[in-house]
């Protein structure tokens, strides 16, 4: 009868176990890494900074956030008066449908009355409305005080992004989370000021 070398057998079993463990760890690393968002995915949802220093009263600036246009409108006192006048014309005058953060659930749907921040996507079918001034009453209709018009299906929104009655859009425009870092800088996509 032949003698079995148990030390050699243990060495082979240990080497096989170690090689299997290293192979499993090597296979697990990409699997675990796939559970975390890529840098591109992080950037797509990352907050964006908007400088509004040169935004004139009555002017609109568009920035991109999460692949969507975000409008920043510097409203004049006349525009604010027009928003108040539109209360009887809009479907949701008090913003009861939660299309905005709590801090923007007010008369002007904004942190500061003179600065509107709205996602420029129609709540009907996702088209992008266009800014129309109060002077365009002839094309827009007698009660028009300025705001946003979606030429695709005719939805109208006032200067606070509230949908006008009779529009196919069911709800007001979305107000994204945002915060003022200073009087001239807004961070869109986060309502928490960085420390």
Q: Helix coverage percent of residues?
A: 10-25%
CATH level-two architecture of the largest domain: 3-layer Sandwich
Query: Which class of secondary structure composition applies to the elements?
Result: alpha+beta
Number of strands: 9
Can you walk through the features of this model?
The structure is a single chain. The chain has helices spanning 6-33, 39-45, 77-85, 137-140; strands at 48-51, 60-65, 68-74, 115-119, 130-132, 147-149, 156-157, 178-180, 185-188. With 195 residues, the chain is of the alpha+beta class. It has two domains: 1-36; 42-188, Rieske Iron-sulfur Protein. The model has no long low-confidence stretch (mean pLDDT 86).
Notable characteristics:
elongated; 25% helix; Rieske Iron-sulfur Protein; single chain; 3-stranded antiparallel β-sheet; 2 domains
Describe what is shown at a glance:
This protein has helices at residues 6-33, 39-45, 77-85, 137-140, and strands at 48-51, 60-65, 68-74, 115-119, 130-132, 147-149, 156-157, 178-180, 185-188. It is an alpha+beta fold and 195 residues long. The strands form 3 sheets. Strands 1-9-8 form a 3-stranded antiparallel β-sheet, with no helix packed on it.
């Amino acid at each position: 009868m032949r003698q079995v070398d148990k030390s050699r057998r243990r060495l082979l079993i240990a080497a096989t176990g170690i090689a299997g463990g290293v192979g499993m760890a090597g296979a697990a690393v990409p699997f675990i890494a796939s559970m975390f968002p890529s840098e591109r995915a992080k950037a797509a949802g990352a907050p964006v900074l908007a400088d509004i220093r040169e935004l004139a009263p009555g002017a609109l600036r568009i920035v991109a956030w999460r692949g969507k246009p975000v409008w920043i409108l510097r409203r004049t006192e006349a525009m604010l008066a027009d928003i108040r006048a539109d209360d009887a014309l809009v479907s949701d005058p008090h913003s009861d449908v939660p299309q905005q953060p709590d801090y923007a659930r007010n008369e002007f749907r904004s942190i500061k009355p003179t600065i509107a921040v709205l996602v420029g996507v129609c709540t009907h079918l996702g088209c992008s409305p266009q800014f129309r001034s109060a002077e365009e009453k002839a094309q827009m209709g007698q009660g028009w005080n300025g705001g946003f018009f979606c030429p695709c299906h005719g939805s109208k929104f006032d200067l606070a992004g509230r949908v006008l009655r009779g529009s196919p859009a069911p709800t007001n425009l979305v107000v994204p989370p945002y915060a003022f870092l200073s009087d001239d800088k807004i961070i869109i996509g986060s309502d928490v000021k960085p420390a």
